[in-house]
Amino acid sequence: MYEVRFYKGDYRERQRKANEDDCICYVEHHFNSSSSPSANYTVVITGSNASQTSKNWGRWYAQSVAREFDLRLGGDQGIKIGGYNGRGDNNLRLTEMPAILLEPLFASNPQHAEWIRSDERQSWLARILCESIQRFFQHGGLVAFSVGHKYKTSRPNDLGAKVYGGGFEAEYAEAVLEKARTMLEEIETLQEEREIKVVQGDEVLWKQALDPDADITWDPVCCVLRIKQS
């Protein structure tokens, strides 16, 4: 199934080790920050040399976060290829596997910061990440996780941006990745089909395999989930 390994050291070293270990994918988790407390979008950075799989994976993750938290998408439909004027590119472009850098929420936005500090909302982010990996890497394997800022050899005290209300981005990013690791490593059956799930908190109440081309709509007035087969 899935095994998760955390990589430490400077970013170049993390990528080199993940390549040597033949990881199937690489995730670096950050939280964004801005001088404006109203910044309110989600985005995923991909390397300047990103594969189409990396781009598709990043967009799927960003769009899922945007729906779950009612945010707009940053970048090009959720992704920023090559980072912000190159910032973030060196974190990813040396990988030999699909790689994404997550910036799901703003540590500087008070509402986002409340979510970042929330154990429940951390689980939401972890679930989205877990489901994205299941969707794009269906055969299982070794997954590389990198905590943004933390554990760098060159700057061992770096924890990234301050989170409004307390703490630093790296501390909460690591908490999300630890939750995602638990979810991934508890998977007993590889996802070979499209699935629909009903989730309450961390508990999956119901799930069902679906036709890959089925059209799914939710009626919030009648509280009815409609599945229309192609």
Notable features of this structure?
alpha/beta, Aminopeptidase, two-stranded antiparallel sheet, about 230 residues, 13 strands, globular, seven-stranded mixed β-sheet
What would your notes on this structure say?
The chain has helices at 11-20, 52-69, 110-117, 119-136, 169-185; strands at residues 2-6, 25-29, 41-46, 72-73, 79-81, 83-84, 87-88, 99-103, 141-147, 194-200, 203-210, 215-219, 224-228. With 230 residues, the chain is of the alpha/beta class. It has two domains: 2-191, Aminopeptidase, CATH 3.40.630; 193-230, no CATH class. It is globular.
Compact summary:
With about 230 residues, this protein is α/β, with parallel strands linked by helices. It folds into two domains: about 1-190, Aminopeptidase (3-Layer(aba) Sandwich), CATH 3.40.630; about 195-230, no CATH class. About 30% of the residues lie in helices and about 25% in strands.
Q: Please, how many domains?
A: 2
- Give the second-level CATH assignment, the architecture of the largest domain: 3-Layer(aba) Sandwich
Low-confidence stretches: none
CATH class bucket of the largest domain: Alpha Beta
Portion of residues in helices? Answer: 25-40%
Rg estimate, integer Å: 17 Å
Major sheet attributes? 7 strands, mixed
CATH topology of the largest domain: Aminopeptidase
